[in-house]
């Protein structure tokens, strides 16, 4: 890889599988150095509970770029949790410390101490139960980095699916779609496919919102009134964008998509991608001034502490973050 700085990894919800997924990294051939932000004592306890024999070495942020982990060693910037952690049992008391760890990771990336950020899964509900309004990593990271138009993109193999809206109740999606907002999302998608993925002239398929892309207005007006005019604007500028296409065929080979599909809402696009590559998919946040990737799964509270969680998605997230950093 053409960079020397490590990636920083946040271990996610402490009662979930994130900490033990991070422990496995000490035994994997990785494309670059990694440093984990979590409670160092929690990681030691989880290593003993799961039998993942790992040496936890606590370091400071300032030393991260100059240290190399030995085989079986994990470098950790410790962010202690105030309450004891029990596998599978959520505790809102620990939510503020969890978010503090994310803040430290983002700040260090913005300062240039890390090449990028990789996040293990969070449990949104327990953060909200702690009294902190939280809709997801994407929105939180955008707030921390002053990013105006974060875009959620999931990648598995050659399939890339971006979302025009993120974590919204389904009934709120139509009202959230505007020409201005869709224009911003599509521009971020084009820009980051070019700058981060090295695709000079990206080809993008845009899904319609309604069945049959509105059926000429008989099944909703959003496709004709909002989506189609924005697509036409990009086509006029010479950008290879097609749509709105019916979402039930937009992902098929007949649609001829090449570089990305833009879905209008979370469960329009992600079921297709996760069916195609669950466990191997990576979540990428576009539109940020830093590189951020994440796993494609949740906290798996029922697996926490068993040592049986699959680290495949985390490994893919690290590899993609390393590729983006090298580019």
What would you note in describing this structure?
The longest helix has 17 residues. The model has no long low-confidence stretch (mean pLDDT 93). The protein has 11 helices and 12 strands. The protein starts with 6 loop residues before the first strand and ends with a helix. α7 crosses α8. Helix content is 35%, strand content 17%. It has 2 domains: 187 residues, 3-Layer(aba) Sandwich (Isopropylmalate Dehydrogenase); 139 residues, Isopropylmalate Dehydrogenase (3-Layer(aba) Sandwich).
What is the element layout, followed by pairings?
Blueprint: E1 7-10, H1 18-24, E2 34-38, H2 40-50, E3 55-58, E4 73-78, H3 95-110, E5 116-119, H4 124-129, H5 137-145, E6 151-156, E7 159-163, H6 173-176, H7 179-195, E8 203-207, H8 222-236, E9 240-245, H9 247-250, E10 260-263, H10 266-277, E11 282-286, E12 292-294, H11 312-326
Parallel strand pairs: 1-2, 1-5, 2-4, 3-4, 5-12, 7-10, 8-9, 8-10
Antiparallel strand pairs: 6-7, 6-11, 11-12
Write a brief caption for the model:
The chain has helices at 18-24, 40-50, 95-110, 124-129, 137-145, 173-176, 179-195, 222-236, 247-250, 266-277, 312-326; strands at residues 7-10, 34-38, 55-58, 73-78, 116-119, 151-156, 159-163, 203-207, 240-245, 260-263, 282-286, 292-294.
Descriptive labels:
11 helices, alpha/beta, globular, 2 domains, Isopropylmalate Dehydrogenase, single chain, twelve-stranded mixed β-sheet, 327 residues
């Amino acid at each position: 890889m053409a960079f020397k700085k490590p990636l920083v990894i946040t271990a996610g919800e402490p009662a979930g599988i994130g900490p033990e997924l991070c422990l496995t990294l000490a035994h994997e051939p990785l494309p670059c150095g990694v440093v984990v932000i979590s409670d160092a004592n929690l990681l030691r306890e989880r290593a003993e509970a799961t039998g993942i024999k790992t040496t936890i070495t606590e370091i400071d942020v300032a030393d991260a770029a100059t240290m190399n982990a030995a085989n079986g060693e994990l470098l950790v910037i410790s962010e202690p949790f105030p309450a004891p952690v029990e596998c599978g049992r959520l505790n809102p008391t620990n939510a503020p410390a969890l978010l503090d760890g994310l803040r430290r990771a983002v700040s260090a990336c913005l300062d240039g101490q890390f090449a990028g950020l990789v996040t293990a899964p969070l449990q949104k509900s327990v953060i909200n139960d702690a009294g902190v309004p939280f809709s997801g990593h994407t929105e939180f990271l955008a707030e921390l980095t002053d990013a105006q138009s974060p875009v959620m993109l999931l990648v598995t193999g050659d399939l890339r699916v971006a979302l025009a809206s993120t974590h919204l109740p389904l009934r709120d999606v139509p009202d959230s779609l505007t020409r201005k907002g869709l224009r911003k999302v599509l521009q971020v998608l084009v820009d980051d496919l070019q700058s981060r993925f090295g695709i000079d002239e990206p080809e993008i398929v845009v899904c319609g919102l309604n069945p049959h892309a509105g059926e000429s207005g008989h099944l909703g007006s959003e496709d004709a009134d909002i989506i189609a005019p924005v697509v036409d604007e990009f086509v006029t500028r010479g950008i290879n964008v097609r749509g709105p296409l019916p979402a039930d065929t937009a992902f098929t080979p007949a649609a001829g998509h090449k570089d990305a599909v833009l879905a209008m809402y979370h469960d329009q696009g992600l079921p297709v991608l996760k069916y195609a590559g669950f466990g191997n998919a990576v979540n990428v946040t576009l539109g940020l001034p830093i590189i951020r990737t994440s796993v494609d799964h949740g906290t798996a509270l029922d697996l926490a502490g068993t040592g049986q969680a699959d680290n495949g998605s985390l490994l893919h997230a690290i590899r993609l973050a390393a590729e983006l950093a090298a580019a």
